[in-house]
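Researcher: Quick sanity check before group meeting.
Model: Go ahead. Protein one:
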Amino acid sequence: MFKKYSLVVIFFLVSATCFGQQNDVLFLESQKERMSINVGLLMGGGSLIGADFEFLVSNRLGLQLGAGISSMGFGINYHLKPYINSQFVSVQYWRQGFGNNHYASYLGPMYTFRARKILQFGIGFGTLLSKGSGGDKTWEIKMIEPTKDFVLLYNIGLFFPL
């Protein structure tokens, strides 16, 4: 009796492994997109509303450039799977504010989760590289306090593979 059930379990595990690999190959073949546009909150270098453009330079390595209402940023991304709509870890540079309104600049690691379609969010931390004269102004609402050495970096938005 035990041999009969163990044979069924082994057959099921082998079948699931084979079919799982086949489905993954079919999914990867359908993923021809090598670029994406991301829009949302705290994207484009941490702007209240911003956008990023990402393109893959190899199967897993991507470059990201972004801008927002009052910020800009870039990143080097390593995708966990070899397609554009997979999760990735990255090193991000965020510059908030321009000219006399430069608030602060940050550099740090970030993890970004991407659902297979549309939704993405990222979280990480940044170290303060520079604090501009815009950070000295007294503002009623401060989303990120630039006097600390480390800050939380996060964003949420939509992504569209191209």
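Researcher: Fine. The other one?
Model: Protein two, sequence then structure:
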Amino acid sequence: MFNIYWRDTTYSRRGGFQTNHTLKDFELTRFSDDNQTVNFTMVFDEPYLLGLLIKKSDNLFIDVRPGFDTKGLFIYREEDNITQPVEGKDHIIHTNVTNYYLDKKTFYKRIPLLFDWNNNMMKTMRVISQNSYWAVISIIIIQFVLLSWRRVGLITLWILIEYLQLVAFMPIYNFRLIPYLYDAFKPTLVAHLIIFDKWPLWDNFVFDDDYFNDNYKNYWLSIGRLF
């Protein structure tokens, strides 16, 4: 019934480069009770490359297939079936049919920044990130012990922590990075002593689900974590 595809930011409507990309997988997951809403899951080939730009967007398109007769769409309710013969009719079962029509034959929607942790590339980067936390913590501790033992001052340690703080907040300002690169920045958050996912002293801390803006939300930096 539908053609489902996406176009990236290189697509040009003025006779330039024009490619409609197909999905790696598309699955209907649930038909809602109102018979008008369908939930579905899409899998893109390289999800970490989509939704990176703000002013120019990657778009998902859903078009009715050429030649498909949308006027033939109908749906009925079982309780409206009449199972007894009706006078003047030569058939037994009649159905109360409600017709539905599509307002549009084509529709497109902007593809947002994607975090697909089932993707092999992104799973690998997450594992590297998790191990990097311990590496950064070890470097800070070892440097503190050595500098204290040698009695040469801790200025190099403070400079290291200052740079880690600058790096940690780079993605949060006004630009986006390829999603798996977020994890490359996250280990530097230990310089802020951000080592808990949530506020550890109270399970229902009011700020654990609040964020300053969408960039902080993409980075999983809730106000609770910053506390």
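Researcher: One line on it for the slide.
Model: The radius of gyration is 27 Å.
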